[in-house]
């Protein structure tokens, strides 16, 4: 009621072309920390989860890396404001004790991240080349930020925003920090290299002429779809 009253009062002073934008307030999760090391009261903290997903072979979204940062609940940590750390250790530090609960959150995070990328790819596929920014313009790498929130005593992952450069920097830093302390190499460099090499190969064959001797049967129809997507000019020769 107080929000509606404030908006109504604000609208009375706006011109015809002005408006009021309301955004949902997402409360961060507050969990009891097991076995506190200090008797001093602990300030409420917020967990920001940064994910990086790339376009894999067959236009399939694939999660590359996850990095977390913690900050004060009233001002959640932003990119570059704190050193990143792993998801499992961050959840433990945040108070998620049960391994099964941490694994369930990790699974839900992967599903939500890849679903966000899939939705973006589907939206781009419906756009004309001009609206996408060019014939070969499309998204290969996407970052999605989440906040660990609590809704009705249940932990929920709330998507905050999508970006590319910020999440890439944070996840690359987390990968480098892990290598520096002896952690085994992750999949981030390989997955990013695959995405870039696939785009480079498409660029090399774009506009080339290919002569096909015998078009094959219906089962080979995917060849024509791939040729169209790669920008190839196909010439068919038959007897």
TrEMBL record:
One of its GO terms (molecular function) is ATP hydrolysis activity. This is CRNS1 synthase. InterPro entries: CARNS1. GO terms for biological process: carnosine biosynthetic process. It comes from the Eukaryota. Signal peptide: none annotated.
